[in-house]
Amino acid sequence: MKAARGVAVTGIGVVSPFGKGVAPMRIGLLECRSCLEPVRAFPDDFDFAPTLARVHEPLEVGRRPGFRLSRTDKLALVAARDAASECGALEETGIAVATTVGGLSEVQPLIATHPREYYRAKGFSTVSSYPRGHVADAIASDLGLSGPRLGLNVACASGAVAIALAARMILNGTAPVMLAGGADAICPFTLGGFHSLQALDPEPCRPFDKNRKGLNLGEGAAILALEDLERARLRGARIWAVLRGWGMTNDAFHLTAPHETGAGVAACIRRALEMAGASPGDIGYVNAHGTGTDANDVSEAKAYTAAFAARSRPVPVSSTKSYIGHSLGAAGAVEAVITMLSLESGTLFPTLRLTDPVESTGVDWLRGETRPQPMRLAMSVSAGFGGSNAALVLEREG
Among 53, 97, 138, 207, which lies 20 to 30 A Cα-Cα from 356? Predict the structure, then answer.
């Protein structure tokens, strides 16, 4: 199948536990530096200090009349401003941004037990940042974007899905430029939910290791500026990478568990390759979803075995959640940025703390140190609760 018209990434804004911007992320990855740390601040009823990856960078965004900004909003705004500034976004630019937490961090249990007291003390504006679409609203208002506006939540695949949908809107002429990505802040309610599912590792996580014990949550935001490739070339824009193809599928299997065969993720990968006009052997690196949970890692490993079976050599795979944790709705977008940095630098980033990989035919589990490997194409894979899957095929420009 002929590859679809390319979508250029002409701006990147990212806030991660490594810091603000692409440069500290690049340095942290090349140093194989883990940002995971035990945090005793919350919640009070934990029987251990959860290991998390937090953003320590000050989030200076100012005040926006009519908007109360949650921590998630602020993370997204910092990233969106950087992406828009780099690409020179226009008024008709659209926004597609994902989040699973939104302003939930700011909503306290008092709202359920004593709502009148809560509203009198906190005001309606405290709750107004809770809806998932509020992040997109805040960015559009802040930057004066008059194009289409989407707020998305399909669990942990959300950030990648937002990028894919925005790219489709570019190709069909809905908007000349789209800002797309995801943002999520660490939230006590979400942390407690994963704890109740027994999905958290008290220690720094070990994705794809036979002795893994679960995931670590993180926070952050990544926003990409997307536009038609030919348009970007004609105006002489800096092109970070080209989005050549994407796939989106749904397991339709279980509320939280992926299908044990990995069939949904494998189908998603095949669709992304077909759209990109690429073969399994063309992919130089896969940035995996790789949470460190029992169910995800086994299922995902099977998906890679199936989807890349036609390769003559094993496909290099790693999970960079071992560096910065799982940022939920932001993960797919943050990991797309990491995949672009891998392409740009010609470097494969290993999974940290991976010593005894799960068995998977045809997979080269990256571990130990970084590995130099120039490549043309790389893939970022995301999956989420409810069976949502997304895969992005990215190409190095030039």
Answer: 53
